[in-house]
Amino acid sequence: MNLKRIFTHAKIRLLIILAVVGPGLITAFADNDAGGVATYSVAASKFGYSMLTSLIPITIVLLVTQEIGARLAVVTGKGLGDLIREKFGIRISVLIFALLVFVNFGVIIQNIGGLKDALNLFNLNIVIFLPVIIGFLFLFITKASYAKVEKFFLFLIFFYVAYFISAVLAKPDWILVGKSLFVPTQSLSFDYIYTSIAVLGTTVTAWGQFFINSYVKDKKITVDKLKYNQAEIYIGAFLTDIVSLFIMVAVAATIFLNNVQIQGAADAALAIKPFAGEFASLLFGTGLLIAGFIGAAIVPLATAYAFSEFFGYEGSLDVAFSKSRLFYGLFIAQVLLAVVVVLIPNFSLFGFTLYADFLNGVFLPVIFFFLYKFSNDKELMGKYTNSRIKNILLITSGVAITIGSLLGGFGKILGW
Q1: How far apart are alpha carbons 200 and 362 in whole angstroms?
Q2: C or N: which end of the chain has fewer Cβ atoms within 10 Å?
Q3: How far is CA 38 from CA 53, 68, 174, 351, 355, in A?
Q4: Can you tell me the distance from the alpha carbon of 237 to that of 60, in angstroms, rounded to the nearest whole number?
Q5: Dihedral of alpha carbons 120, 122, 128, 131, sign
Q6: CA distances from 42 to 37, 102, 238, 250, 342 (A)
Q7: Beta strands in 219-284 (DSSP E)
Q8: Closest Cα to residue 54, out of 155, 203, 160, 232?
Q9: What is the largest CA-CA distance in the chain?
Q10: Which pTM does this prediction carry?
Q11: How far is CA 48 from the centre of its chain?
């Protein structure tokens, strides 16, 4: 009888976990999009293992902010855009949405550019295959239900194991890797700070704060399942930064140690080959292709979700195209415009990559302000307001990012 109760209890818990799985994992892993892979690759090629020191504080910031964003949606049943419009009015909403569109579009360009580079890496004709991928993406997003879209993206996450294998094949000094996570080995410079803010901006994204909030709302997770949702978010944040670690380790152990200059993730995939073998190079390129596809879907969706919330239009993956033309229209318009930009002759992602992610980092303290205001509003949140430690971490993160952005940007402008 006891065994039967234990089995029944375990079965119920498993069903609850399966019911809430999705938002945390998909949002976190989408942070490792093609732009993220490029930024991690460039950062590790410049600073080697020393860049790993930034990962633990970045992971903590990701854990805290994603959890707050999801909790807001679960408790209030509203998206971040909804709350900004209701509490701060239409003028602030327009301003924040305009900034979000500007920052997000840079990330979308990175992802379409990553798709283009990955196709070139495998000698696939971009004139044929890029439109095919974009066409499939549009049809899938507009025709499939929320549940099918979610399951497909959860399936794609498994391909990120390619970076783990690439890192192992690179034969890094794992003792040095472990030490570099905790002990800084690089003296501070303006370029290091600038690059660290870019790494932060590609991991803890402005679009990610809006997307997880909207996605949780769209999934209709209820308060009684909050703790399961929180657990999934924590696991997702931890796993995605493990992937970030493997990407940087693979590059640091090969490209950095051999003083090879690269301009992005595709270059990294090619440059790894002489040192870690053809299979490692193939896996790195495969990861880039999957990352580009996920990012090209998720980031435009984040903008479309935000638009529907900021301006009171219906927007949901469970709403038919005919009833939500603005939502889906904005989604595909961003993707198509990014394709046009990327197909400009001699367009290079190199100078664009760190710049776009640095802007994401600069924008984060603004998002953190709204997260702080709403998550401490007892009228909105009741007993689910922030704990003191989360408030301290959120405020400290915002201040540190602001100072780092000023120093990094100042140094970049002056060429230091």
Answers
A1: 10
A2: N
A3: 18, 28, 23, 11, 12
A4: 9
A5: negative
A6: 9, 23, 22, 12, 19
A7: none
A8: 203
A9: 73
A10: 0.84
A11: 22
Q: What confidence tier does 334 reach under pLDDT thresholds 50, 70, 90?
A: very high
Inform me whether the pLDDT recorded for 54 exceeds 70: yes
Phi, psi of 316 (to 5 degrees): -160, 145
The conformational region for residue 77 under phi > 0 = left, psi -120 to 50 = alpha, else beta, is left
Residues ≥6 apart with Cβ < 8 Å to 172: 249, 250, 252, 253
Residue 371's nearest CA partner among 386, 382, 358 is 386
C-alpha dihedral (272, 275, 183, 56), degrees to nearest 10: 30
Question: 117-134: per-residue pLDDT in tens?
Answer: 888 888 888 888 999 989
CA separation for the pair 114, 226 (Å, rounded): 35
Q: Is the dihedral of CA 401, 362, 61, 39 positive or negative?
A: negative
pLDDT in tens, 361-413: 788 888 999 999 999 999 999 999 999 999 999 899 888 888 877 777 666 66
Side-chain half-sphere CA neighbours of 92 within 13 A: 13
Q: Give the pair of three-digit tokens for residue 89.
A: 């009015």
pLDDT at 326 over 90: no
d(CA 279, CA 314): 46
